[in-house]
Design a protein that fits this description.
CATH superfamily: RbsD-like domain
Order of helices and strands: EEHEHEHEEH
Mean pLDDT: 92
Oligomer: single chain
Radius of gyration: 17 Å
Structural class: alpha/beta
Strand content: 15-25%
CATH class: Alpha Beta
Distance between the termini: 28 Å
Number of strands: 6
CATH topology: RbsD-like fold
Length: about 150
């Protein structure tokens, strides 16, 4: 965790998640349940001095019925409990995969594969800076613009 920083990603994924070939992506088979891995990763992020999680999940998950994926309703309830302290964005699975591809072109992405066998349950965590937020960045950029030194 100490090597990861702003813009890196950590994915906690189900067992059918594809092994991606981009050089910036490292996949590790955890042989552990998804919620256990998620708890561990969030605990590490929460106890870091430099990181905070930006969490995204598949927009498809709320529409997966128990008839087609037995246990998914219970999983959604457990996942909601785990993620309650965090804002969670929802995007279509293909959009999230595109975000992983784009990120891995410049930054490292760690994929933690779990024993989960329910669809659309992957958790996509983009790491953000704990000690410098978007509001502080915006204020600094405004001061730079006022001083005639426009940044990116």
């Amino acid at each position: 965790m100490p090597l990861l920083g702003h813009r890196n990603m950590i994915l906690i994924v189900d067992s059918a998640y594809p092994l991606q070939s981009s050089p910036g992506i490292e996949t590790i088979e955890t042989n552990a349940p998804q919620l256990e891995v998620l708890h561990h990763v969030l605990n590490m992020i929460d106890h870091s001095v430099h990181l905070q999680p930006l969490i995204a999940m598949d927009a498809e998950l709320p529409f997966v019925p128990d008839d087609d994926a037995p246990g998914v309703a219970a999983f959604r309830t457990e996942m909601a409990d785990v993620l309650r302290p965090y804002p969670v964005q929802s995007s279509p699975h293909e959009t999230l995969l595109g975000m992983v591809d784009k990120t891995s072109a410049h930054y490292n992405v760690l994929v933690l594969k779990t024993t989960m066998t329910l669809p659309y349950t992957s958790v996509f965590i983009t790491l953000d800076c704990r000690y410098w937020g978007a509001d502080a960045e915006k204020r600094m950029r405004a001061r730079m613009a006022t001083a005639g030194r426009v940044g990116p």
